[in-house]
Amino acid sequence: MPHTPKRVVPVGVDVTANPDGSVLITCDPNPAEVIQGTSNVLLVFTLNTSGYRFPTAGAITLDEVLEDFPYNSWTISNTQAALFDHNRIADTFDYTVTVINTSTGVDYVVDPEIKNGGGGTGGD
Question: What percentage of the chain carries pLDDT values higher than 70?
Fold first, then answer.
């Protein structure tokens, strides 16, 4: 049976507030892997920690403008955001996840990676 590439890549986002006041954000998986040959992939980020939310815009941002990611991310809800990926280029890309503490309004960020397998044929 041939392998069908996944067009939706789920990424869990967890926030840990440490006793010293520091905040640790983890994304799982990291890197988020997009299978080679898969076109038009949606990376879906789910925030699993209560007391935090995604901003209404810019929850997921690429560290540089890239043709594989032609659109800004969009926030679906306080706990879900998405990013479109053509997956044409095989490479590892840095991105930033931003979450907001709902009590204080303070933003926190983490810089995980997306590992594109490339070979996607999606286009404009």
Answer: 94
